[in-house]
Amino acid sequence: MQLEAVVRRLELEQLYTDYVHCLDGDELEHWPDFFTEDCFYRVTSAENYEARMPLGLIHATSRNMLKDRVSALREANIYEPQRYRHLVSSIKIVEEGADTLDLTANFLVVRTMQEGDMTLFAAGRYLDEIRLTDGTWKFTRKDVVLDSRQIDTLLAIPL
Predict the structure, then answer these.
(1) Given Cys at both, which of 30, 39, 90, 95 links 102, Cβ 3.0 to 4.6 Å?
(2) 44-65: per-residue pLDDT in tens?
(3) Judging by DSSP bridges, how do beta strands 136-146 and 35-45 pair with one another?
Protein backbone atom coordinates (compact mmCIF):
# COMPACT_ATOMS: atom_id res chain seq x y z
CA MET A 1 0.00 0.00 0.00
CA GLN A 2 1.40 3.37 -0.97
CA LEU A 3 1.96 6.09 1.59
CA GLU A 4 -0.71 8.27 -0.08
CA ALA A 5 -3.31 5.50 0.30
CA VAL A 6 -2.39 5.02 3.97
CA VAL A 7 -2.70 8.75 4.63
CA ARG A 8 -6.08 8.85 2.88
CA ARG A 9 -7.31 5.86 4.93
CA LEU A 10 -6.29 7.64 8.15
CA GLU A 11 -8.04 10.82 7.01
CA LEU A 12 -11.25 8.87 6.36
CA GLU A 13 -11.06 7.11 9.71
CA GLN A 14 -10.56 10.48 11.38
CA LEU A 15 -13.53 12.01 9.52
CA TYR A 16 -15.91 9.28 10.67
CA THR A 17 -14.44 9.23 14.19
CA ASP A 18 -14.87 12.99 14.57
CA TYR A 19 -18.37 12.80 13.08
CA VAL A 20 -19.69 10.20 15.54
CA HIS A 21 -17.93 11.77 18.53
CA CYS A 22 -19.68 15.04 17.69
CA LEU A 23 -23.05 13.28 17.71
CA ASP A 24 -22.36 11.08 20.73
CA GLY A 25 -20.90 13.99 22.68
CA ASP A 26 -24.03 16.08 22.10
CA GLU A 27 -22.02 18.70 20.23
CA LEU A 28 -24.78 19.08 17.69
CA GLU A 29 -24.01 22.73 16.97
CA HIS A 30 -20.80 21.47 15.28
CA TRP A 31 -22.56 18.73 13.29
CA PRO A 32 -23.32 20.94 10.23
CA ASP A 33 -19.60 21.80 10.01
CA PHE A 34 -18.96 18.29 8.66
CA PHE A 35 -20.94 19.20 5.51
CA THR A 36 -20.44 21.47 2.52
CA GLU A 37 -22.80 24.44 2.07
CA ASP A 38 -24.70 22.69 -0.74
CA CYS A 39 -24.90 19.31 0.96
CA PHE A 40 -27.60 16.67 0.89
CA TYR A 41 -28.51 14.67 4.03
CA ARG A 42 -31.19 12.02 4.26
CA VAL A 43 -32.19 9.26 6.66
CA THR A 44 -34.26 6.59 4.90
CA SER A 45 -35.03 2.88 5.02
CA ALA A 46 -33.22 0.38 2.79
CA GLU A 47 -36.56 -0.45 1.19
CA ASN A 48 -37.24 3.18 0.26
CA TYR A 49 -33.66 3.70 -0.90
CA GLU A 50 -33.79 0.67 -3.19
CA ALA A 51 -37.17 1.81 -4.55
CA ARG A 52 -35.55 5.22 -5.27
CA MET A 53 -38.06 7.05 -3.09
CA PRO A 54 -36.67 10.60 -2.88
CA LEU A 55 -37.72 11.70 0.60
CA GLY A 56 -36.65 10.35 3.94
CA LEU A 57 -37.41 10.54 7.62
CA ILE A 58 -34.93 13.38 7.82
CA HIS A 59 -34.17 15.34 4.67
CA ALA A 60 -31.95 18.39 4.20
CA THR A 61 -30.54 20.00 1.07
CA SER A 62 -28.13 22.51 2.59
CA ARG A 63 -25.94 23.15 5.61
CA ASN A 64 -28.38 25.85 6.70
CA MET A 65 -31.18 23.26 6.86
CA LEU A 66 -28.94 21.15 9.12
CA LYS A 67 -28.38 24.18 11.35
CA ASP A 68 -32.15 24.73 11.50
CA ARG A 69 -32.61 21.11 12.56
CA VAL A 70 -30.14 21.56 15.42
CA SER A 71 -31.90 24.77 16.51
CA ALA A 72 -35.24 22.94 16.54
CA LEU A 73 -33.74 20.11 18.60
CA ARG A 74 -32.36 22.55 21.14
CA GLU A 75 -35.26 25.00 21.33
CA ALA A 76 -38.53 23.40 20.18
CA ASN A 77 -38.44 19.63 20.57
CA ILE A 78 -39.08 18.00 23.93
CA TYR A 79 -37.89 14.44 24.46
CA GLU A 80 -36.57 12.28 27.29
CA PRO A 81 -32.83 12.72 27.89
CA GLN A 82 -30.87 10.01 26.13
CA ARG A 83 -27.37 9.15 25.02
CA TYR A 84 -26.21 7.62 21.77
CA ARG A 85 -23.16 5.57 20.89
CA HIS A 86 -22.31 5.15 17.21
CA LEU A 87 -20.11 2.30 16.00
CA VAL A 88 -18.82 2.70 12.44
CA SER A 89 -16.96 -0.02 10.55
CA SER A 90 -15.94 -1.27 7.14
CA ILE A 91 -15.31 2.12 5.52
CA LYS A 92 -14.86 1.42 1.82
CA ILE A 93 -13.95 3.70 -1.06
CA VAL A 94 -16.44 2.92 -3.85
CA GLU A 95 -15.30 5.50 -6.37
CA GLU A 96 -12.58 8.14 -6.56
CA GLY A 97 -12.95 11.44 -8.39
CA ALA A 98 -10.50 14.30 -8.78
CA ASP A 99 -11.43 15.91 -5.44
CA THR A 100 -14.31 13.66 -4.31
CA LEU A 101 -14.73 10.16 -2.93
CA ASP A 102 -17.82 7.98 -2.83
CA LEU A 103 -17.79 5.87 0.33
CA THR A 104 -19.85 3.30 2.13
CA ALA A 105 -19.61 2.35 5.80
CA ASN A 106 -21.65 0.25 8.20
CA PHE A 107 -23.02 1.65 11.46
CA LEU A 108 -24.80 0.61 14.64
CA VAL A 109 -26.31 3.06 17.11
CA VAL A 110 -27.05 2.12 20.71
CA ARG A 111 -29.41 4.39 22.64
CA THR A 112 -29.32 4.66 26.44
CA MET A 113 -32.30 6.25 28.12
CA GLN A 114 -32.11 8.31 31.31
CA GLU A 115 -33.10 5.31 33.48
CA GLY A 116 -30.35 3.18 31.92
CA ASP A 117 -32.32 1.07 29.45
CA MET A 118 -30.18 0.35 26.38
CA THR A 119 -31.45 -0.66 22.96
CA LEU A 120 -30.06 -1.16 19.52
CA PHE A 121 -31.54 2.02 18.06
CA ALA A 122 -30.42 1.81 14.44
CA ALA A 123 -28.33 -0.30 12.10
CA GLY A 124 -27.50 0.30 8.49
CA ARG A 125 -25.00 1.88 6.18
CA TYR A 126 -23.78 5.30 5.25
CA LEU A 127 -23.61 6.04 1.52
CA ASP A 128 -21.49 9.14 1.35
CA GLU A 129 -19.84 11.49 -1.06
CA ILE A 130 -17.08 13.64 0.40
CA ARG A 131 -15.12 16.51 -1.07
CA LEU A 132 -11.74 17.86 -0.11
CA THR A 133 -12.44 21.49 0.87
CA ASP A 134 -9.59 23.69 2.10
CA GLY A 135 -7.59 20.60 3.06
CA THR A 136 -10.51 19.02 4.97
CA TRP A 137 -12.86 16.24 3.88
CA LYS A 138 -16.52 17.28 4.11
CA PHE A 139 -19.71 15.45 3.28
CA THR A 140 -21.42 16.68 0.13
CA ARG A 141 -23.97 13.88 0.35
CA LYS A 142 -24.86 11.56 3.21
CA ASP A 143 -27.55 8.93 2.79
CA VAL A 144 -28.18 7.14 6.08
CA VAL A 145 -29.83 3.91 4.95
CA LEU A 146 -31.49 2.03 7.79
CA ASP A 147 -31.76 -1.76 7.57
CA SER A 148 -35.16 -1.81 9.24
CA ARG A 149 -38.44 -0.23 8.19
CA GLN A 150 -39.38 0.01 11.85
CA ILE A 151 -38.13 3.42 12.90
CA ASP A 152 -38.44 4.65 16.45
CA THR A 153 -40.57 7.76 16.68
CA LEU A 154 -37.85 9.28 18.84
CA LEU A 155 -35.55 9.75 15.86
CA ALA A 156 -34.51 13.24 16.89
CA ILE A 157 -30.72 13.20 16.97
CA PRO A 158 -28.96 12.95 13.58
CA LEU A 159 -27.44 9.63 12.65
Answers:
(1) 95
(2) 999 989 988 877 888 999 999 9
(3) parallel
